[in-house]
Amino acid sequence: MNGLVDDRALLSRTSTAERVAGILRGRIADGYFPPGERLSEEAIGAALKVSRNTLREAFRLLTHERLLVHELNRGVFVRVLTVEDVEDIYRTRQLVECAVVRGLGKPPYRLDGLRGAVDDGRRAAAEEDWAGVGTANIRFHGELVALAGSKRTDELMLSVFAELRLAFHLVDDPHRLHEPYLARNAELLETLESGGRAAAEKLLAGYLDDSRKRVVAAYAKRLGGDDGDAGM
Known about the structure:
- By secondary structure, this protein is mainly α.
- It has ten helices and three strands, in the order H-E-H-H-E-E-H-H-H-H-H-H-H.
- It has a three-stranded antiparallel beta sheet.
- Strand 2 (68-71) and strand 3 form a beta hairpin.
């Protein structure tokens, strides 16, 4: 056990690195660091007052989550997804989100988080804040996943939703992309409020399939149909 004494320093560093990764994950999801941007160790380290080793560990964690990519002799960049990445994100969403609804059990369900996300989306739309509508939409689906009561599932989908935001940031017309899901989120919420679990799962499956087609089409258009070199 004496060898573990030497690892004490890793405890505080890893904890700090995870917190730094959480900050950067949120900033990436919000578009503060857009896809393709190089992340400066010097600037970020100075802003957050963390060591280079801690920051590099945070970068490593986010690279593992597929949000960043390291290029030899060039640095660390926010990842640019390929069309295939977007397709895979939606396959994962379909598997997880539909399974969550299918396994809900007997109503009533705890839907306050979903109601709050629907209200946030409506407020953002009224202000013509379409990026905000997208944020509310992702929150809605995060709250939906949270109905499973599984921290592992929450953590898995946190990374998946952050990746999805990378695709959203490159779509030219967020209004056209996000607006239809205001009504669909409300419809899904109403179905769950009435206890219609099977109907909600059917709605969700169609919803995610339509969303996949819309996002992939918009994303492929932005990439010019050539996704072979899209990832940084």
